[in-house]
Amino acid sequence: MLHYIIFLAFLSAVQTAPTAGLRSRASISALGQPAISAFTPYTHYASTGYCKASETLTWTCGVNCQANPDFEPIASGGNGDTIQFWFVGYDPSLSSVIVSHQGTDPEEIWSLVTDAKIVQVKLNSTLFPELSSDIEVHDGFADEHAKTATDVLSAVQSAMSKYGAKDVTLVGHSLGAAIALLDAVYLPLHIPGASFKFVGYGLPRVGNQAFANYVDAQSTSVTHINNEEDPIPIVPGMDLGYVHPSGELHIQDSGEWTQCPGQDNPSKQCIVGDVANLLDGNLSDHDGPYNGITMGC
Ligand SMILES: *[C@@H]1O[C@H](CO)[C@@H](O)[C@H](O)[C@H]1NC(C)=O
Ligand SMILES: *[C@@H]1O[C@H](CO)[C@@H](O)[C@H](O)[C@H]1NC(C)=O
Questions:
Q1: Where is the signal peptide (predicted)?
Q2: What confidence score (pLDDT) does residue 117 get?
Q3: How many other CB atoms sit within 10 Å of the CB of residue 26?
Q4: Alpha-carbon dihedral angle through residues 24, 13, 213, 273, given to the nearest 10 degrees
């Protein structure tokens, strides 16, 4: 009996390994225009992350705010300097609480993700209780996330209770996407029963293989959208032990959006294959446009 089970396990290992590889290559596909357009409100919310906290609290930040006119703000914070701006509120059309974090300009994020002094650290066990100790993330991202974590948590809890909401969507661009991805791990540990979604733009790699596997194993829906030859999504390098979770959408030079299954899909239609060499990268692609929207306030 035991031999039989071992034999079956052996057989399935032999059969699934190559098939899984073929399946992930075969299922690279183009996203249709309605699916691309469905991201537009989130893209505007990520862009609005760059606006001053005083203006997102009153939803008077101009075109960025007007793009999502029904939004009901709950709280905002940060100073745009030592603490990235953030805001929390409710979108009645999407029936979702929205959390957005400010990004940073291409040169600044570039120096943060290529800083040789940066190390991988475990996440703070008060903020992230009972996570496996194998999980490690970029030191700088963990620091930035910790600065706003508890304020964001209480704002999300207020918004959920005020609007009877069960869905929470976390967005951000660049550094803001990295902070939002950490929120996508942090908030579910403190808010059981809610449904979480992450939509990040120009996301750098945030953590190690165990981190990426943990993100993939959660019920949270994860999408990270990268634009043309933006080099930020391929740093810090895989050779330094950094891995993206699944959920990549890659915008081609043609403007077509490609669905790239798996972690760090090596296809030329995805960012890892498209920007195979850092010299192929172009930092001007970092801010977009993402279906016509350029990040910033
Ligand atoms: C972990 O986070 C808690 C809550 O924000 C904070 O009080 C504590 O100082 C942090 N611990 C470390 C080691 O940074
Ligand atoms: C980088 O991208 C910008 C904007 O798309 C473009 O104008 C420029 O020519 C690109 N630079 C290189 C070296 O390809």
A1: 1-16
A2: 81
A3: 9
A4: -30
User: What is the token pair recorded at 43?
Assistant: 């893209």
Q: Distance between CA 235 and CA 275 in Å, rounded?
A: 11
Nearest to 154 by CA among 162, 233, 171: 162
- Per-residue pLDDT of 223-268, as tens digits, reads 999 999 999 999 999 999 999 999 999 999 999 999 999 999 999 9
Ligand 2 pocket list (CB less than 6 A): 282, 284-285
Q: Are 197 and 168 in contact (CB under 8 A)?
A: yes
Coil/strand/helix, residue 171: strand
Give me the amino acid identity at 6.
I
Nearest CA to ligand 2 atom 2: 284
Residues of the domain holding 202: 25-219
Asked whether residue 81 is domain-assigned, the answer is: yes
Q: Looking at 182-191, 207-216, 241-250, 274-283, which range is the least confident one?
A: 274-283
Best substitution site from 284, 286, 290 to test ligand 2's pocket, by max atoms within 8 Å of Cβ? 284
The answer to whether residue 53 is domain-embedded is yes
Q: Domain with 55 in it: what CATH number? A: 3.40.50.1820
Total domain count, the chain: 1
Question: With b meaning 16 or more CB within 10 Å and e meaning fewer, what string describes 258-292?
Answer: bbbbbbbbebebbbbebbeeeeebeeebbbbebbe
In what helix (H) or strand (E) does residue 75 lie, and over which residues does it extend? strand 72-77
Polymer length of the chain: 297
